[in-house]
Design a protein that fits this description.
Elements lengths: L16 E5 L4 H10 L5 E5 L5 E6 H13 L9 H9 L16 E2 L4 H11 L3 E5 L5 E6 H10 L9
Parallel strand pairs: 1-2, 4-5
Antiparallel strand pairs: 2-3, 5-6
């Protein structure tokens, strides 16, 4: 699977993300993902349409927990993170990782994509052109499909 390139896989199922300006309101993104359950990620871009960061459904899950639960039972969330989530107004305000460099290009290998996805704990990664603009995304579903197509078959339990 190491020789397989991103360009062979990332368009198998269409886009599973949206691309928005980094200054867009959080309300807009919450409404988009609330009405489009197939969406898995939000890629934030600057005024030149270049990737500056990403938020995942998990990031939004943490934001939702902060708002619904008001801090109860949030033992794994630091106080600073909790306050940041409660005060978030723009989509960029809830980004938890510095994901500006979290991306692949069409000629990158699947191995490189998987390494980044595992390092950042994300199941979707933006695909960029040579100028750093988002041209698509590579999702776990597409990778699983390619793995099956490449001959990986589930083994029955003994």
């Amino acid at each position: 699977m190491k020789a397989i390139r991103v360009k062979e896989v990332y368009r198998l199922y269409g886009k599973a993300s949206i691309t928005v300006p980094e200054s867009v309101t959080l309300d807009y993104v919450v409404a988009m993902l609330g009405h489009e359950p197939r969406l898995q990620g939000v890629f934030m871009v600057d005024s030149n349409q270049r990737l500056v960061g990403m938020i995942s459904r998990f990031d939004l899950l943490r934001w939702t927990q902060a708002h619904f639960c008001g801090g109860e039972n949030q033992t794994d969330t630091r106080i600073n993170d909790f306050i940041r989530l409660l005060n978030a107004r723009k989509v960029k305000d809830i980004e938890t990782d510095n994901t500006g460099s979290f991306s692949v290009k069409e000629n990158d290998t699947i191995q490189a994509a998987l390494d980044l996805m595992i390092r950042y704990g994300k199941d979707i990664i933006p695909v960029l052109d040579g100028e750093g603009r988002v041209i698509g995304d590579l999702s776990l579903s597409e990778l699983l499909s390619k793995a099956l197509e490449s001959g990986m078959q589930p083994q029955p339990e003994p």
